[in-house]
Amino acid sequence: MTTLHDQIQMLRAELTSFHLSRRERACIERELRKVEADFAAAVSYVSEDPD
User: Fold this and answer.
1) pLDDT at 45
2) For the CA atoms of 42, 45, 47, 50, what is the dihedral angle to 10 degrees?
3) 34: part of which helix (H) or strand (E)?
4) 21 three-class SS
5) Residue 49 has what pLDDT?
6) CA-based Rg of the chain, rounded to a whole angstrom?
7) Cα(47)–Cα(51) distance, rounded to whole angstroms?
8) How many CA atoms lie within 13 A of 34 on its CB side?
9) Pick from 12, 31, 43, 51: CA 20 to 30 A from residue 4's CA?
10) What is the full per-residue pLDDT of the chain (51 aa) written as tens digits?
């Protein structure tokens, strides 16, 4: 199972490719921002949990 952290690392690795078109790079950056926001929300949810 791929975690959000793993997905972030994979997307960052994809961005290091020199063979990306502008459209591909923009799509990966957009997806990375979304996954990073999901990760931040998950971490925030866990830290706010009183249990």
Assistant:
1) 77
2) -150
3) helix 22-48
4) coil
5) 58
6) 14
7) 10
8) 6
9) 51
10) 689 999 999 999 999 998 999 999 999 999 999 999 999 998 887 666 565
Amino acid letter for position 21: S
SS3 49: coil
Are the CB atoms for 28 and 15 separated by under 8 Å? yes
What φ, ψ does residue 43 adopt, rounded to 5°? -65, -40
pTM: predicted TM-score of the whole model, two decimal places: 0.80
Query: Cα 23–12–8 angle (5° rounding)?
Result: 110
Going by C-beta distance under 8 Å and a sequence separation of 6 or more, which residues neighbour residue 14? 20, 28
